[in-house]
Amino acid sequence: MTASILILFILGASYLHITNGVFDMSVMDVIKTLLRIEPNPKFDLVIFEFRLPRIIIAALVGVGLGMAGVVLQGITRNGLADPGILGINAGAGAAVVIFMFFFQLRLVTADMSSWLSILMMPLFGFVGGAIAAILIFSFALKNGHLDMQRLILTGIAINSGFGALSLFLSLKMSAQDYESAAVWMAGSIYNANWIFVVTMLPWLILLGIYVHRKSYLLDYFQLEEDSITSLGIAVEKEKMKLLLASVGLVSACVSVSGSIGFIGLMAPHIAKQLVGIQHRYVMPVSALIGAGLLILADYIGKTVFAPSELAVGIVVSIIGIPYFLYLLVKSKA
């Protein structure tokens, strides 16, 4: 029932997104274009080249960030853990900016013949995200266990450090490359295209299936470590595998959308309110919530200030910051 409602929410947000904008279309125009009934070149261009890839990218990024958020909160046993807050987004983003700096790839006006360059971006993002995760968890360890206060503080520091590196490199770029990097770092998917869909889809499918199959372990991770070990679970090994999988999900998302925070924070909390705390249910519901939230946020960013656009990362932050503060106050209560 919950999944059905969320799917309807995603379809509703997609309907608003695909029919509204600078060039408005009716539902019948969209249906006829999708079913190839009396095809119109203008509608084909708007739907297949601009709006449909953008909606699909928003959904995929939302799914990836929602699932990664569930994993990170389950591993750390901290409801405030999020790929953006912990600095994993920033690490992956800095690696992609380095890639853009040295290979001079402009995401806004990327040459679509450069398939290899675009397909390599998630790999660079994965390396950057993994380095950020290793640094964060190394500094957060205390007597062999994760210290939650250290985790958050270290994440904020790593986030700031990688953010500064990204800004420094972007300022060294040419004017056109800087514009591309600045738009991307704000968290934007308005330049979405089918190549970006193909780029992130294998990562999302393979890693998404893996973390969902392993989601039952997150239930055990909420117990004391002695209790988990007595069940025959290699705790640290399994945590590292899940952490690397979540870093891969985040990196694939960051490589096509830039750094979008708070989806990985909000989606798991909302999912737990809807279906309880069992992670095998929380994981898919969080993925659906992430997809719906990001599609809706991108629609808001596209239409509120039309014909100008607000980056989806900014829209999500406007919603996410008050929600983060609410969770922070609630955790102290």
From TrEMBL:
One Pfam entry name: FecCD
Source superkingdom: Bacteria
Membrane topology reported for the UniProt record: Multi-pass membrane protein
Gene3D superfamilies named in the record: ABC transporter involved in vitamin B12 uptake, BtuC
UniProtKB keywords: Cell membrane, Membrane, Transmembrane, Transmembrane helix, Transport
Main location: membrane
Subcellular location(s) per record: Cell membrane
Residues that span the membrane, as ranges: 52-72, 84-103, 115-139, 151-171, 191-211, 242-269, 281-301, 310-329
InterPro entries assigned: ABC_BtuC-like, ABC_transptr_permease_BtuC
Family (UniProt): Belongs to the binding-protein-dependent transport system permease family. FecCD subfamily.
Protein name in the entry: Iron chelate uptake ABC transporter family permease subunit
